[in-house]
């Protein structure tokens, strides 16, 4: 990476080094910015709320999950979110882009940890901790690359699509150009594959990755690649370790936040960057999407709050707060496997997964299991349930990009704002957000077309 990103990452390292009081006390001189113990390296990866478990949000802003009013749009915090909402060519207007900067902070932290491990002598006493830290760093790097790729890479159907800068060193002076999309995906898969035998099966902290989380992320990556056999296999591997689903009958649907923070359905905690659009009470659920829920579907009560006549907001964040969830949870893994099984002709398996999820979402005694045997109709139903289950998360933008490659599922997005109509056609180049202005100015890497 070059100067602009370098400066961000250097500041990130200084902040990270100062996050522990003990660390400051032990290192009062310049060496305080250099982690030298396994505990120091773990502390870098545990900077969850400020860096490591933060997920980009502009994809959610630009997706079709929600809409806002003319006045509320004008009152949004940043030009970035206002312009992303209407898919404008120049979305930043000189602003820094947290959706680019924070994932690259994560990459930097991960690389610092990976290189730091090489300087600590392995012993029988620290072997388990070393493996866990290395596996975690590889997971975080892969997760960050994946988030960046889905936002800043061209639609998946482009054979010559550029990926992102793939930084594999903590040397802030090393220059890295944009890899291809294929090269980026290969690096993500390689990192996760290497991480798997190193990660723990269980963790007391959902901010730390486990083997089930890594397998679920592999399933997600292979799904966007259209490699359904591999995606199904990794989803099965993940669910073989943890297949828990919340029974929505046990939730208090009338509660302000009916879903608990760090609940057992979560494999890996992530929370989206906070924009006004993601937290304002004037961001309303898409009207047709809300209407697609049947009355005995508990998600209709658990997910939504009536704000004004025929306008609803989303309240069931898996963060347990107003901040949107951007991590990985088992409901997504069930839906990945169901979709892949339907595409591969395993109708019985796809029905098992779909019904296992829906039974936990419908009022007790009211759910009638899906029995559809036509694979094409079943696939449509699974994708509909994916749409209804995973709204207001970090997956919809990626789904739009991949499903637009199939004419059966391609859609044009529409907005109406201040009397002006805006649209985003399937496979439009604007599905790849522009590289931030400052990065282009200082590094000269190739910009995405707009």
How would you describe the overall organization of this protein?
- The protein has 450 residues and is mainly alpha-helical.
- The protein has one domain (3-250, 325-443): Alpha Horseshoe (Serine Threonine Protein Phosphatase 5, Tetratricopeptide repeat), CATH 1.25.40.390.
- The protein is built from 20 helices and twelve strands.
- A two-stranded parallel ribbon has the order 1-6. Strands 2-7 form a two-stranded antiparallel sheet.
- α1 (3-17) crosses α8 (98-117), α8 (98-117) runs antiparallel to α9 and α16 runs antiparallel to α17 (347-359).
- The longest helix has 26 residues, at 127-152.
- The two termini are 23 Å apart.
User: What is the CATH architecture descriptor?
Assistant: Alpha Horseshoe
| Nearest-integer average pLDDT | 92
Question: What would you report as the Rg, rounded to the nearest angstrom?
Answer: 22 Å
Strand order of the largest sheet: 1-6
CATH class: Mainly Alpha
* Computed structural class: mainly alpha
Strand fraction band?
5-15%
Main sheet overview: 2 strands, parallel
- Globally, the shape reads globular
Instruction: Please provide the count of β strands.
Output: 12
Task: Count helical runs.
Answer: 20
Q: How far apart are the termini?
A: 23 Å
Fold-level CATH name: Serine Threonine Protein Phosphatase 5, Tetratricopeptide repeat
- Give helix % range: 40-55%
Total domains: 1
| Unreliable stretches | 1-32
């Amino acid at each position: 990476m070059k100067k602009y990103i370098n400066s961000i990452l250097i500041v990130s390292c200084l902040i990270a080094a100062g996050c522990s009081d003990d660390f400051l006390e032990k290192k009062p001189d310049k060496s305080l910015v250099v982690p030298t113990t396994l505990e120091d390296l773990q502390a870098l990866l545990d900077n969850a709320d400020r860096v490591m478990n933060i997920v980009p949000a502009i994809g959610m802003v630009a997706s079709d999950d929600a809409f806002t009013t003319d006045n509320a749009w004008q009152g949004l915090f940043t030009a970035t979110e206002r312009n992303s909402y209407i898919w404008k060519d120049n979305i930043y207007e000189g602003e820094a882009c947290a959706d680019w900067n924070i994932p690259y902070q994560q990459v930097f932290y991960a690389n610092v940890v990976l290189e730091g491990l090489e300087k600590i002598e392995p012993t029988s006493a620290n072997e388990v901790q070393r493996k866990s830290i290395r596996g975690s760093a590889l997971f975080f790097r892969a997760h960050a690359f994946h988030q960046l790729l889905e936002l800043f890479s061209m639609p998946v159907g482009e054979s010559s699509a550029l990926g992102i800068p793939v930084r594999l060193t903590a040397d802030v002076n090393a220059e890295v150009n944009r890899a291809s999309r294929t090269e980026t995906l290969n690096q993500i898969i390689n990192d996760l594959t290497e991480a798997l035998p190193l990660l723990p099966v269980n963790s007391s902290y959902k901010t730390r990755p486990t083997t089930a989380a890594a397998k679920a992320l592999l399933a997600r990556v292979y799904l966007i690649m259209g490699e359904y056999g591999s995606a199904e296999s990794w989803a099965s591997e993940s669910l073989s370790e943890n297949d828990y689903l919340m029974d929505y009958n046990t939730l208090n649907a009338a509660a302000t936040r009916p879903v608990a923070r760090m609940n057992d359905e979560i494999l890996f905690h992530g929370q989206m960057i906070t924009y006004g659009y993601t937290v304002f009470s004037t961001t309303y659920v898409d009207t047709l999407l809300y209407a697609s829920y049947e009355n005995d579907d508990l998600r209709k009560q658990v997910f939504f709050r009536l704000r004004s006549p025929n306008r609803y907001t989303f309240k069931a964040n898996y963060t347990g707060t107003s901040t949107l969830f951007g991590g990985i949870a088992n409901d997504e893994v069930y839906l990945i496997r169901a979709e892949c099984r339907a595409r591969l002709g395993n109708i019985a398996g796809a029905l098992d997964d779909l019904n296992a999820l829906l039974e936990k979402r419908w009022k007790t005694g009211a759910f009638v299991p899906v029995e559809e045997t036509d694979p094409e109709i079943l696939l449509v139903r699974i994708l509909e349930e994916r749409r209804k289950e995973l709204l207001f998360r970090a997956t919809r933008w990626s789904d739009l990009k991949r499903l637009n490659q199939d004419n059966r599922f391609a859609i044009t997005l529409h907005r109406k704002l201040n009397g002006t109509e805006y649209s985003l056609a399937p496979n439009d180049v604007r599905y790849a957000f522009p590289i931030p202005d400052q990065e282009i100015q200082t590094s000269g890497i190739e910009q995405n077309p707009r």
